[in-house]
């Protein structure tokens, strides 16, 4: 026994499954664990709890089941630990501290749900086909044939409309061999295996609106795509994720707090129930699932927490939802892999991370995607992972391996956060492969949308070059034209990229407003200002920037907003933006 | 049942191995040799071989020495009688007071707090250090490191905060500190008359390395019990880099694969397990942690400060004897500024920092040989006053006094329209003519 790693000897002929759940018995209390290596009769088990007090000779029970998530109505609004124990339930029985060996049902099986069947007796169904639905909060939660069901089954019985618990049988299927199978609303799925019971995977072609302008306009995120947010500590990763979790236009948001501060989770837990979802008017918690394994909770369960989150995400995708999963932070997950690898005395790779780090990261992000379901509707799972690189250095293995597999990269920089330019995503190093991929959808905003965005991006580069030059030769050393480039770039930065997370109007920008404001801004960029002197240039650019700035805080389309807009139009004249 | 064993099969670093059965993981044992007796903890079990980490070090341990297993993990005494006392890294009193054998004992390194039983921090802890109170206030249940290079007066700062801070119980954990430093802490606390609310766990640099690992756990286990009982506890730790170094030493002598500069891969989790003990209990007390982290080579990207920065809620930089206003950050400050503290707090804070940044710019400009203007003169004066009245660690004023002094200082150097504060607050707080 070494830390959370326990080696057990099994009786001859006992079958042991890789990654199966085992329970190590500590003074009569079973401690949940996972099989992570088998060598002959020796089985290495990773215990998800503290192993203090275990003895050589203690018993281990094998469950013959893989580590699984429990899926069904009742997940929404829950706060789970990494193994899907609802923390609220633990609260009632445990007091302040989390005790070992306490496992509670993930879903409430006494609650009754109003089931309406949508399939009929005699229908032939496969795993993932809809049988009916129950209302859950603002959604219709479709009940599907268990995702693990093999082959085609014929419905021989289906429940009538009425109230059922998640453990009541709602249908009976008979397969080709004549075996009967009883379906309940609750089902289990092993967390480390992707759910693939859909018709086909599609190329992500629609943007997922986050209401953060820097992302939506400059580096769009695709529905069903992936992105990573690396950044040094204190650069605002977590604030950015919190903003996305609140305002992103997804049906369901899953927050995986993986090895991060408990305080941050507390803010989410305490504030979300009080915040209103702008789309539905209900509490934000109704569309949120939180999975938290904070930094002081057992490391072994940290690895499982992300998989648990993704499995829940895939389940909701399966019932036609637009799911966004935010993982903060994948570095802690990678560190958990590193810790267990070191205990197993595997040969280490770069920075002592295991050699399989790359494939694990790739497999994780590959579970995102936009899919067409059997009933021709779509569902999607979008994954955004935070990365916390050691020393803020992006060259380290976790960041680099993540960059290989994601579709968008939002790199936070210390220098931008020091300048209080929030969100501190550095536009000079960030990228999104989705800008071109989403061309068709984005060009509905404006026929030249992509060109305009690229033009703005290149302006930022040129502005930064001029700025570098000015740092060396001073303002005197650059031409008026160069200075104007710099001032325009600075204006684009201040007006469009920077977004005040604490202002009621500013913190979230709708798609319509993004289009309208960005096109107007591009008119400013295109405008051939002719200035006599640098002083005049600075003065007038400051003036126009200020009007734009005031407009940011005015409610969209209301009088103040229209007035600022007119004022700007008067200066700029005709352009790409509508009158 | 107490079993004795007297055949040590391996001694490597501070790790020993003995053959034994029925031993629990994490259990404590006593190793008795001719010269000394030490506690040891089980850190690995392999078949009937038990690996122990000897707290007092393995020097002088003989293969024939006796190892007696105690059947329980490391524990620490707990009770009100601990107040005013000093303990060593094994939890034994090292002052002249009575022994505390009658007190109940609790296991150290207990489970973590259920996140749903935490509340959003909302209490302000006044330290009477204006650079903290005004610019980066300490919030109850916050965990904050003080990043400093060797030679900075971090222990003086910590002692000062320990004396002045508005808390019910102050627990000092000294990890690998010099004996002189310990004496300085003790004398300072005694002189200020705050000893009765203070508990010290002191591991000095000459004590065995393994004991270093226990100090934070003991300090925090005791803090937790006071917290659950409704006390507002402030835990001061110095120096967490020494703690990390001890972990490195043990990990390497256990043949663990090092990850970065020799530190074990679990460094983040190990540090987090300690810092995360900071908590505001729903309906009870709180634990606030202030911990010195020395930066080897003054390098903040060194693994210890770097991992710490990801765990804690901000940081203070101690540079050239003062708390650096730029770079220092209290992430929870917006929870108390202007809410618990006076309404003008936020405005004074932002305005004073912005003007101080400008005064630094002016200094730089002058250093490059540019001409001094009348305006520069005022900024220089402001910079000077700011240093004397706020940054100097000797300054000892409460928050409201400090805010008033802030207004006063602004008035001495600037006109109301230069400070960029809402008119409403200028009207209310700008010192009147003769003030």
- Proportion of β residues of chain A? 15-25%
CATH topology of the largest domain in chain B: Rossmann fold
Instruction: State the shape of chain A.
Output: globular
The top level CATH class name of the largest domain in chain A? Alpha Beta
Which CATH architecture of the largest domain in chain A is right?
3-Layer(aba) Sandwich
- Distance N terminus to C terminus of chain B? 76 Å
Instruction: Count structural domains of chain A.
Output: 4
Keywords for this structure?
heterodimer, A: alpha+beta, OB fold (Dihydrolipoamide Acetyltransferase, E2P), 4 domains, 10-stranded mixed β-sheet, 5-stranded antiparallel β-sheet, 16 helices, globular, B: 435 residues, Rossmann fold, 3 domains, 7-stranded antiparallel β-sheet, 23 strands, elongated
Q: Could you outline the blueprint of secondary structure elements for this entry?
A:
The complex is a heterodimer of chains A (579) and B (435).
Chain A: E1 5-9, E2 20-26, E3 29-39, E4 42-47, E5 60-66, E6 68-71, E7 79-80, H1 87-94, E8 113-117, E9 124-125, E10 130-136, E11 139-144, E12 153-158, E13 162-164, E14 169-175, E15 180-184, E16 187-190, E17 200-202, H2 213-218, E18 226-230, H3 237-247, E19 252-258, H4 262-271, E20 288-293, H5 299-318, E21 322-328, H6 330-343, H7 357-365, E22 369-372, E23 378-387, H8 397-403, E24 408-409, H9 414-418, E25 431-432, H10 434-437, H11 439-442, H12 449-473, H13 480-497, H14 511-526, H15 534-552, H16 559-572
Parallel strand pairs in A: 7-20, 18-23, 18-24, 19-20, 19-21, 21-23
Antiparallel strand pairs in A: 1-4, 2-3, 2-5, 3-4, 6-16, 8-10, 8-13, 9-12, 10-11, 12-14, 14-15, 17-22, 22-23, 24-25
Helix pairs in contact in A: 5-6, 7-8, 12-13, 13-14, 13-15, 15-16
Chain B: E1 4-5, E2 10-12, E3 15-19, E4 27-32, E5 37-46, E6 49-54, E7 66-73, E8 75-77, E9 86-87, E10 105-107, E11 124-125, H1 130-135, E12 138-139, E13 143-148, H2 154-164, E14 169-177, H3 179-192, E15 198-204, H4 209-228, E16 232-238, H5 240-253, E17 258-260, E18 263-264, H6 267-275, E19 279-280, E20 286-294, H7 303-311, E21 314-319, E22 322-323, E23 329-330, H8 345-367, H9 374-391, H10 399-413, H11 423-429
Parallel strand pairs in B: 9-15, 13-20, 13-21, 14-15, 14-16, 16-20
Antiparallel strand pairs in B: 1-7, 2-3, 3-6, 4-5, 4-7, 5-6, 8-10, 11-12, 17-18, 19-20, 21-22, 21-23
